[in-house]
Amino acid sequence: MDIKRVVIVGGGTAGWLAANHLGKAALNNELLSVTLIESPDIPTIGVGEGTVPAIRQSLQSFGISETEFIKRCDVTFKQSIKFANWLDKEVHGQHNFYHHLFDMPSSLGKELTQAWLSKKGRTYAETISPQHAVCEAYKGPKTISDAEYKGHLGYAYHLNAAKFAKLLGENAQERFNVQHISANVQEVILGEDGEIKSLVTDSVGTLDFDFYIDCSGFASLLIDKALKVPFVDKAEQLFVDKAITVQVPTDPASAIPPFTIATAHQAGWIWDIALSNRRGVGFVYSSKYMDDETAVCKLDHYLGGKLSEHSYRTIPMKVGYRERFWEKNCVALGLAQGFLEPLEATSILLTDFSAGFLANRFPTSAAQLDGMRQQFNQVMGYAWERVVDFIKLHYCLSDRIDSQFWIDNGDPGTMSDELSKRLSLWSSFIPNREDFFSKFEVFDLENYLYVLYGMNLPTQVALSRASDESNARMHSDKIARIADQLVNELPNHRELLEKINRYGLQEV
């Protein structure tokens, strides 16, 4: 049987990202049609509203203008995640922080890391990249004269999730001929072989398709409710299971941080994301270590006693992923695939990654399903496990002992065997490219370096030659000079956004 009719159940960011990836792939197969069924009653969750640099490549490949994207989705630039108070305040100061930058570290990363470990003068991120200074100066990553999707430094975006989903939806329909149906799926009908046969909707009747994409969010209508694929719970590794979210209006003249702020507290952390006209704030915590009333009080304190001025909601977070992501003739993407706390913008990252991976080799016949299903599940299972490790890294490296939450996070029994092996290796050797043998690790060497040494991982310092030390010192001085130059030349973040909204960027 040929696969000709594909349906995506669920809209939002996940559904419409998948629609663009699959719709673009379908342009090369005139027999393949893509339909998206979206409930008119379910709002976009929009937890976090942050992305990582890989999204730029996807948006450009979809043919979306960066100028239009910035104007329509309240976009601000994101060059980093600034981690505040993730280390012991008594040892590292009341306002300790480090940056997980989005710019690639210097090509002399190993030599500079070794030199930094020997002396630890400036912060690690300052030592290996000029972007640290740019972020702290609240500068943009590019100028108004730079072409779309190009910049002086690596960057991603903060965005309005509802507006982003709308833009993606329009693009998928107009550019890639994706059909849109507004309806609620009331029943999923399975065939005798256990595959999904059809969907029963409230407004357009029963619809038959050949292949199904589950983007129905936490409801997981297809992969869970219909196909009964088990959920792999990761609560023993990642403790947080709730978030209180609120949107706070901002002064239109105030400076806009070009980074996400992630501030640790006694039982979790707080995200703070600035758009051009508001902040999205989320108080993430573990209900095992903090009750809901205390969490609300803590968030109110963070907002200067003004939480009651705004509406807020509490979101339960079941942390983990599906045991299988592709079952029978159905693939789960987005929140239907799994969920981890939004510490490193993992939701959009994994959705974009897995949707692109599926679209690049989309099956055209039922005979291809078994082999492709096996590969997809293997790749995505590995990717999810390594993302769990990367998130856990932020907690287990902390030297905070001011609450049981942080003490328990340091217990080696709450880490995977792979993470334990890597940390043991990195206590003796600086990480290198060969430690990340799979291209399906969505967080790579550079990401680990920023976090490992931002949190002061003690790595044994190897003996070095005087020439290596001199070379590292010269290169470090060069990075400092480049940083000064960029801080002087790059525009203030808000100023750049105002110019883009007024004049636009140069088209590629």
Automatic annotation (TrEMBL):
Record-listed FAD binding positions: 11-14, 185, 335, 348
Keywords (A to Z) from UniProt: FAD, Flavoprotein, Nucleotide-binding
Signal peptide region: none
Residues annotated as binding L-tryptophan: 344
Superkingdom, taxonomy of origin: Bacteria
Listed transmembrane segments: none
Keyword Calcium among UniProt keywords: no
Active-site feature positions: 78
Entry binding sites for 7-chloro-L-tryptophan: 78
GO MF annotations in UniProt: monooxygenase activity; nucleotide binding
InterPro entries attached to this UniProt entry: FAD/NAD-bd_sf, Flavin-dep_Halogenase_NPB, Flavin_halogenase, Trp_halogen
Name under which the protein is recorded: Tryptophan halogenase
